[in-house]
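ok so I'm stuck.
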Amino acid sequence: MRYAIIILLTQIMISSCTMDIEDFAEGREDIPEIIRDRISKSELIQKDDSIIMMIYDYSQLIPTFEIYDEAFTMLTKNHLIRFYMTEDGEENIQKIDLRECLSVKIKPIFKQRDHLTYHVEGEQLGSHWFSEKTKRYELVTETNSVYYGGASKNEKKLKEMNNLIIETWKKQDKYDSLRQIYRNFFDENDNRIVTDDVKISREKLQSLKKRIKPYSEKIEDKTDLLIIVRQGKILQVQYDYFEKQFNILEIQVENIPSDESEISSIVFYYIALTKGGREKLKMPYEYKTEFKKITYLNAEKIYAKSIEDILEKYYQQSEK
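replied:
not stuck anymore, here's the structure
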């Protein structure tokens, strides 16, 4: 087994003024040339965008000082972007479009020795329409996240980055109109306003949870949906008040993790990859994140009119 001492190093780079991609790529002494070239070639920054602040984070092995992973986070006038390399050299991108955000939340999530990590969550406008079924305006949002961090000694600069993210979001042209939409659906504590049909749907899910709890390997209650592990499958269950039915997303993966948050992420990654189920993935489908690999084997939508229908399909043997 190979042991290595890891040193976490962070360089905080801030431009004294806004710079465009040409300036950034053609040469700034405060940013390593290899990083300038990579950003230029990756085409992460559009010609009409510009970088406000950048954080370059990397790790080294002692005694070789070899860089074995690295990431850089860029705040531009329109986006928050994180570009990172996995251990096998694969490139990954996290991105939030600040122009379409209804809300932006930043919270510290991780601190280890001298390293800090922040989670930036941008809730973006998916669709907003008047529904004939519900006789009211409906809102679908899409949540994107960026995780970034650096050395604790640079905490002041990291907080400056957080402040700049919020300030940049509030300067967007559609900020006021998007916030008005947001306030029609969320209260002053940023909780979604609960309508009568939502209350009834939640009650249906709680009734289902009570019935299946003795027989399910795992049940995670997400308030408006249940995530269940049963018979080697991951089930996301919701109740549609207007259609009077349970909507079930049944997912099979190569390996089901034991951690509940990892199980949930398998479902949420699938929903994001299929744009809310509007698109299909060619199975088996392999998806790599910064920390793990997920192999999807199959996914299917199933509808059940009653709790009894769900019990019959997934819990028949247990009930007998």
